[in-house]
Design goal:
The protein has 282 residues and is of the alpha/beta class. The protein has a single domain, classed as Metallo-dependent phosphatases (Purple Acid Phosphatase, chain A, domain 2, 4-Layer Sandwich). It contains nine helices and 14 strands.
Length: 282
């Protein structure tokens, strides 16, 4: 079984790298079809099931789905180990079923896993909690599965951009670090030091509390009108954090998604009206 999982993750890496809409670290979607945007999942299996049901990709051949922050949270083993890697395996299978229409972007828990740095959630260091669960489930092969997970996470793109001028990434650089961010990271091969502070992938996944001036600067840099991000907790499932910024979460009972028509343009207000509570999806 461990080798089957390693093989699955390696196939996921190949699918990430050969996504027809990917150029280096950016997914650029065309002005056709539709898109389902989701926030952090953090091991929430039921909400992932709802996202899959709502998207219904098998019957909507021109629809795309953006997912993020799959690991760290959700079910635990008997000793409190984090089992969110099981959801990651399911998400990779989803990607393999629809390789050019499921796009999984890198989050801060991903960068922390890749570089084995500490990352806290609900008072626990999550990398250790997940590593311990892997060792208990896979025995000596747990280290091999852990390495394959890190390699998979490293293969994820950083952002998605649409022709109708919407940008999706896990976060954006914080105000204090925006000058250190190099936008050329989107146009070249990712390096391991990019995911370590103050690398540009690290900055793009860890920033919080963005000023409007910074948002306007980044919107000009990326040539877009609206940002949809995750990362920052949202008790009601979504929040408006600036004139051109929506933050969504999909990792709890008030989680949500946003369905978008890739043909038409949107204001932030129009996008907010489209929000769908995941609890409403059967």
């Amino acid at each position: 079984m461990p080798q089957t999982i390693v093989d699955l993750l390696n196939k996921g890496i190949e699918a990430n790298n050969t996504d027809k809409y990917r150029r280096d670290n950016l997914i650029s979607l065309p002005a056709e079809g539709s898109l389902i945007v989701t926030g952090d999942l953090h091991g929430h299996c039921r909400n992932f099931e709802r996202i899959v049901a709502f998207a219904d990709l098998a019957n909507n051949p021109d629809r795309h789905v953006v997912l993020q922050e799959i690991i760290h949270g959700g079910p635990e083993d008997a000793l409190g180990g984090c089992l969110s890697y099981r959801l990651l395996f399911d998400v990779v299978r989803y990607k393999l079923s629809f390789p050019d229409r499921v796009h999984i972007i890198m989050g801060n828990h991903d960068t922390a896993s890749i570089n084995s740095s500490e990352v806290m959630k609900d008072g626990r260091e999550m990398n250790r909690a997940m590593r311990m669960a892997l060792e208990r489930e896979f025995g000596k092969a747990g280290a091999d599965v852990d390495l394959a997970i890190k390699q998979y996470l490293f293969s994820q793109p950083l952002a998605v951009k649409t022709e109708n001028r919407i940008w999706m990434s896990h976060s954006l650089p914080g105000d204090r670090f925006v000058e250190k961010f190099d936008p050329k990271i989107l146009d070249r091969q990712l390096k391991i030091n990019d995911v370590v502070r103050p690398g540009s992938a690290y900055l793009l996944t860890w920033g919080r509390r963005h000023s409007q001036a910074m948002l306007d600067k980044m919107a000009g840099m990326f040539d877009i009108d609206v940002f949809i991000l995750g990362h920052q907790p949202q008790e009601q499932g979504w929040g408006r954090a600036g004139e051109n910024l929506i933050i969504i979460a999909s990792n709890h009972n008030h989680g949500c998604l946003i369905p978008i028509d890739l043909v038409q343009s949107y204001t932030v207000e129009q996008l907010l009206e489209l929000i769908v509570p995941l609890a409403s999806v059967s």
